[in-house]
């Protein structure tokens, strides 16, 4: 048992924690009291202590271990410790310290007293470890209050800690002096036992009899032997002994959490081991045979094998990221389900007699992937510098280092994501914009308690204690509560704040509080808001006050780091216009400069809007932008700047971009893509020489080369004249996307601010959207309207949205630019949707972007904009508008509609008026022409209809009432009540208005295409209705498909299957059954083979790509064999609607690799086919049977 000299209470506590095994004995002797107190502040050591006393009383996954000291995580860990002390060790509230008392070190003696009580607890005494203080033996029961009172002079030293704590470099204190008990010793022992152990039972061949004669050959042997053991003893064992048996007893969701994507790793390493073995044997001259090897694999070196498989190794990212949750789920199931516990015990007994637990075996893949760079490094050391494979080995080692970084960053980001979620859940009165979380504001760079004031241009704010969270994009200010929760107070966009050490407020405006702070030796940091972000009354700058200089420097560093993430300094002089972006993690994204992975789960890097390059921050300055410069201006009503084509350059085009064909192309060169004018083409690869490889968007099977001068962008940049990124000293501006829409404070009983609603609203539902509208028509509508009256239309000629606005007697137009799913008028202000853009400029002056437009988007033009007054109205206040019967009125706004008022304009008079006192000016009154005409004026705004009917008497026909019933149901109005009301008016025939029911064009929500070479096959393309919330699609409509499209099939059975990557199902034929096949998630290559004897297309096949993105379906009538191959790494969920019920007695199959049919399956390596499908007859055998 260890001891320390002296009897100070804190030293005895150190001795006890060393004896408990949670504190390294090498650290303890050289630590001061401040060091020891600081080590306890993050709560990790305390949580480990309790888990030593009562194993698993705190779940390991709940303990936060951060790269840097975060006050939020420290408080969370301390609260975990205190909670377990209360529930497990039965400590009373008065016996425990508060979380803030430890973190601020305001009563360290109280902390030591509580730890002393734990040292006298029964679990601690059972370990035969001497408690502290050693002379205190008055109680051995944890339930007896035991308050240690150190001598006054020692108590004074403890209280002085709070004055010293802010001088400590917290990050260094936590990670330079820390517990060193290794969590990796057990997994490493298992790895050595299973993977590194020599197999004496391996079959004899050229490799098993090989004896290495040099260090280089020893390295090769170790690499291949351990790889073979990893595949055969580790992965095969986990799959065969655990994965498959537990599928029968564990729910699918739990099974997926436990084993994650281990099947993907299994597939990867079977292929990797085979290629690695071939390369090593070839290198050592042990095998000259290339039988069965594709030509592309011949001659590959060991390094080449690693490079070939590099992209597949990213599968380790989600696997290693999920290990913590996997371990926790196993423990939870073993604790709560005896049947599962027994099954796991049975599985482990069959493998190693319960020597290793399942959760420890699942760590083997992580151990393996982190070993490759070490094995390659040793091999490089023993490889001559001029050896032909030296370069490939160095590249392979660099590639595996990149893979390791990718895996580690994904694990770190997973922890960060969980932390941010906990932060958001801990903040009360916080209302986030819809579909936005704090994670959309970037990573959390720092948080903590500071003294802070918010000052306007006229008044210095009062200093208050606040908890501040600095995210990459947003600074959030809260008030800390006692229970580790926070009350939201305010938020500011980081990119609109500029740090300064100089007071921005003139001396004459500095208040008493400001002077006191300045004279009290406080170290101040000012965050000054940009002028364009402020109004006259809004906060102009924040003042943060710190007791010590080190704290100010730390906060300044974290703030500048956050700001530089959004507006990187590296952009200057490069010409890049970058956006800080999150990329999907299901496929690898690589930096365009260094060709290494963009790492992490969110905000992995930057995308240049000009050249389309993906960039690490450090790589931005390494390569100047090769893209074009973009500028903006406003178009006058008399002219419109022509869009710029790509001409003979293909700079700025990147994979996934879409372009429109300017002309028809039917080149005699079969390598070039054939397309018609206005076809949309998706870019697959830009070759940089004026050509690119692309495919038709409506038929992705049509792939070929395209000349850049034959196409233009889907959204051409037609607004010119403003400062370009190259002219800007920074080179990048604020990215005002959804993620920079600030959260709002939500008070009790208050409704959310309107700002949060506009992000996810469909354009077609907006009152200002006019749909497809020509320029001349928009000018006719807006001419003569007040300044700022506007509408948004879609220009077919420009394939763009256009804002048309009335200003100073003229109508002006500006194109809404779109690129990479963002919309903007000026590149400095970008938005996620048209709606967000319009709402921004309804509140912010357009002169920010266009000097010639000094107005906001004031009044939305409506279809029923002009109204005719039908009753007199005398205004009683200036805010009302006097009406006279017959006046023509312009509707300005519908504000107040819920109370029966609108806002309108007559000549130069504007005010509110009763909405029931006017009717649509375009309403047409016709005499009765025939009995087919309907007796009601129907072209009225819905909000006017009831009022207008009440002032007029009508002859209402049943046909009219029925029609209104249908229309009102569509508008979500009580149609039954309206019909009853209309029928009451029938006897009152003082006068009648007549109008025919308008003809409504039926919108068919699906398109059916016929496959040219096999006309009985159909590709169904339903219309998708997307918005920022997601999308809606109608996948089947019996009535519409039958009446409008002639598709008359009766479905009797629905099927749903899931297939992993590379799975090939088929070819299956079920006589009497047609199939409508579609994909919910993932992607497949779906194939139909005509097996109808006597058919003109007998034996022919056709394949289509179906995926969750295009929402297409494939119709195979009765008489076709069906099969598909899964192309997506995450697998595919496939649904089938069938016209018959499955009958196994009539089903038959055809070999999917039949040479006569010769289906061109996209994947040829690692294809997974069931034994049943492999055993199917050939097509020739089927014909003869």
TrEMBL record:
Ranges where the SH3 domain occurs: 862-923
An example Gene Ontology biological process: cell migration
Alphabetical list of SUPFAM superfamilies matching this protein: Calponin-homology domain, CH-domain (SSF47576), DBL homology domain (DH-domain) (SSF48065), PH domain-like (SSF50729), RmlC-like cupins (SSF51182), SH2 domain (SSF55550), SH3-domain (SSF50044)
Domain Phorbol-ester/DAG-type: 575-625
Occurrences of domain DH (ranges): 215-410
Xref: Pfam families: C1_1, CH, dTDP_sugar_isom, RhoGEF, SH2, SH3_1, SOS1_NGEF_PH
GO terms, molecular function: dTDP-4-dehydrorhamnose 3,5-epimerase activity; guanyl-nucleotide exchange factor activity; zinc ion binding
Domain named SH2: residues: 768-857
SMART domains per record: C1, CH, RhoGEF, SH2, SH3
UniProt domain Calponin-homology (CH): residue ranges: 7-122
GO CC annotation terms, alphabetical: cytoplasm
Keywords: Guanine-nucleotide releasing factor, Metal-binding, SH2 domain, SH3 domain, Zinc, Zinc-finger
InterPro entries with a match to the protein in the record: CH_dom, CH_dom_sf, DBL_dom_sf, DH_dom, PH-like_dom_sf, PKC_DAG/PE, RmlC-like, RmlC-like_jellyroll
Identification of the protein by name: Uncharacterized protein
């Amino acid at each position: 048992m260890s001891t320390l000299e002296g009897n100070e209470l804190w030293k005895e506590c150190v001795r006890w924690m060393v004896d408990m095994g949670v504190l390294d004995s090498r650290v303890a002797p050289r630590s001061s009291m401040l060091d020891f107190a600081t080590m306890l502040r993050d709560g990790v050591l305390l949580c480990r202590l309790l888990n030593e006393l009562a194993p698993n009383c705190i779940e390991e996954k709940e303990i936060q271990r951060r790269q840097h000291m975060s006050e939020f995580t420290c408080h969370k860990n301390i609260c975990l410790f205190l909670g377990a002390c209360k529930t497990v060790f039965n400590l009373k509230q008065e016996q425990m310290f508060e979380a803030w008392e430890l973190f601020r070190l305001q009563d360290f003696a109280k902390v030591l007293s509580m730890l002393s009580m734990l040292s006298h607890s029964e679990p601690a005494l059972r370990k035969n470890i001497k408690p502290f203080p050693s002379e205190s033996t008055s109680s051995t029961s944890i339930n007896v209050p035991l308050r240690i009172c150190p001598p006054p002079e020692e108590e004074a030293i403890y209280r002085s800690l709070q004055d010293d704590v802010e001088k400590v470099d917290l990050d260094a204190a936590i990670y330079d002096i820390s517990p060193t008990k290794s969590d990796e010793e057990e997994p490493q022992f298992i790895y050595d036992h299973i993977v590194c152990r020599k197999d004496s039972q391996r079959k004899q061949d050229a490799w098993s009899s090989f004896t290495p004669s040099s260090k280089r050959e020893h390295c090769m042997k170790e690499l291949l032997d351990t790889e073979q053991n990893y595949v055969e003893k580790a992965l095969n064992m986990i799959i065969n002994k655990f994965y498959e048996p537990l599928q029968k007893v564990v729910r699918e969701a739990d099974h997926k959490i436990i084993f994650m994507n281990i099947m993907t790793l299994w597939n990867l390493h079977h292929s990797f081991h085979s290629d690695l073995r071939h390369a090593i044997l070839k290198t050592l001259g042990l095998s000259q045979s290339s039988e069965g090897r594709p030509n592309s694999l011949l001659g590959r070196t060991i390094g080449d094998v690693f490079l070939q498989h590099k992209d597949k190794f990213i599968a380790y990212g989600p696997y290693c990221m999920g290990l913590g949750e996997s371990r926790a789920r196993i423990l939870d199931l073993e604790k709560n389900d005896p049947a599962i516990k027994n099954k796991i015990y049975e599985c482990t007994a069959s493998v190693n007699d319960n020597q290793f637990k399942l959760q420890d075996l699942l760590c083997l893949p992580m151990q393996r992937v982190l070993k490759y760079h070490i094995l390659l490094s040793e091999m490089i050391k023993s490889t001559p510098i001029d050896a032909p494979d030296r370069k490939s080995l160095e590249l392979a080692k660099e590639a595996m280092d990149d893979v390791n970084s990718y895996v580690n960053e994904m694990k770190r980001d997973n922890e960060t994501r969980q932390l941010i979620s906990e932060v958001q859940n801990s903040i009360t009165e916080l209302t986030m914009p819809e579909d936005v979380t704090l994670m959309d504001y970037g990573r959390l760079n720092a948080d903590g308690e500071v003294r802070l004031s918010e000052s306007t241009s006229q008044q210095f704010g009062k200093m208050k204690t606040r908890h501040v969270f600095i995210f990459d994009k947003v600074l959030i200010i809260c008030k800390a509560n006692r229970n580790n929760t926070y009350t939201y107070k305010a938020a500011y966009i980081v990119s609109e704040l500029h740090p300064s050490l100089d007071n921005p407020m003139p001396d004459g405006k500095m208040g008493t509080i400001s002077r006191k702070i300045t004279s009290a030796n406080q170290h101040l940091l000012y965050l000054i808001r940009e002028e364009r972000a402020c109004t006259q009354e809004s906060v102009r700058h924040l003042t943060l006050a710190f007791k010590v200089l080190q704290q100010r420097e730390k906060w300044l560093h974290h703030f500048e780091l956050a700001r530089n993430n959004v507006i990187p300094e590296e952009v200057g002089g490069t010409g890049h216009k970058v956006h800080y972006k999150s990329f999907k993690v299901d496929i690898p994204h690589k930096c365009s400069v260094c060709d290494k992975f963009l790492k992490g789960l969110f905000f992995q890097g930057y995308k240049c809007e000009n050249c389309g390059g993906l960039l690490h921050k450090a790589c931005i300055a390494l390569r100047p932008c090769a893209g074009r410069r973009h500028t903006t201006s406003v178009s006058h009503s008399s002219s419109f700047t022509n869009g710029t084509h790509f001409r003979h350059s293909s700079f700025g085009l990147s994979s996934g971009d879409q372009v429109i064909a300017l002309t028809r192309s039917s080149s005699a060169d079969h390598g070039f893509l054939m397309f018609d004018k206005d076809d949309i083409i998706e870019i697959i690869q830009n070759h940089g020489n004026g050509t690119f490889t692309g495919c038709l968007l409506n038929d992705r099977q049509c792939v070929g080369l395209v000349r850049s001068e034959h196409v233009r962008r889907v959204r051409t940049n037609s607004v010119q004249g403003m400062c370009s990124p190259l002219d800007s000293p920074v080179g990048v501006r604020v990215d005002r996307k959804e993620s920079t829409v600030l959260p709002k404070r939500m008070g009790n009983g208050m409704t959310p601010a309107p700002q949060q609603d506009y992000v996810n609203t469909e354009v077609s539902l907006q009152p200002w959207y006019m749909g497809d509208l020509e320029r001349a028509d928009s000018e006719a509508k807006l001419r003569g309207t007040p300044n700022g009256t506007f509408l948004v239309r879609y220009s077919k000629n420009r394939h763009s949205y256009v804002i048309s606005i009335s200003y100073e007697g003229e109508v002006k137009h500006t194109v809404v630019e779109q690129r990479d799913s963002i919309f903007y008028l000026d590149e400095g202000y970008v938005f996620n949707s048209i709606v967000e853009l319009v709402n921004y400029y309804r509140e912010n002056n357009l002169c920010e972007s266009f000097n010639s437009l000094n107005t906001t988007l004031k009044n939305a033009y409506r279809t029923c904009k002009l109204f005719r007054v039908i009753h007199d109205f005398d205004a009683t206040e200036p805010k009302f508008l006097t009406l006279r019967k017959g006046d023509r009125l312009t509707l300005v706004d519908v504000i107040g509609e819920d109370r029966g008022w609108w806002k309108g304009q007559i000549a130069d008079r504007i005010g509110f008026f009763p909405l029931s006192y006017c009717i649509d000016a375009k309403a047409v009154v016709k005499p009765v022409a025939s009995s087919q005409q309907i007796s009601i004026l129907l072209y009225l705004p819905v909000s006017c209809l009831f009022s207008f009917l009440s002032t007029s008497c009508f002859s209402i026909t049943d046909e009219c009432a029925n029609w209104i019933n249908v229309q009102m149901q569509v508008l979500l109005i009580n149609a039954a009540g309206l019909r009853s009301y209309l029928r009451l008016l029938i006897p009152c025939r003082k006068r009648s208005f007549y109008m025919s029911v308008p003809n409504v064009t039926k919108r068919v929500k699906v398109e059916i295409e016929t496959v040219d070479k096999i006309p009985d096959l159909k590709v169904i393309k339903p219309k998708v209705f997307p918005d920022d919330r997601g999308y809606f699609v109608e996948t089947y409509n019996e009535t519409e498909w039958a009446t409008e499209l002639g598709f008359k099939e009766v479905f009797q059975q629905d099927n749903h299957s899931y297939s992993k990557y590379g799975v090939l199902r088929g070819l299956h034929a079920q006589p009497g059954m047609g199939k409508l096949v579609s994909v919910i998630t993932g992607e497949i290559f779906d194939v139909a083979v005509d097996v109808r004897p006597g058919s003109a297309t007998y034996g022919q096949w056709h394949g289509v790509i179906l995926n969750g993105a295009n929402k297409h379906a494939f119709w195979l009538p009765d008489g076709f064999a069906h099969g598909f191959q899964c192309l997506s790494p995450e697998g595919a969920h496939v649904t089938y609607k069938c016209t018959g019920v499955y009958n196994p007695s009539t089903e038959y199959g055809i070999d999917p690799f039949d040479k006569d049919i010769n289906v061109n399956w996209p994947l040829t390596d690692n294809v997974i086919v069931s034994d049943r499908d492999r055993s199917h007859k050939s097509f020739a055998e089927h014909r003869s049977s």
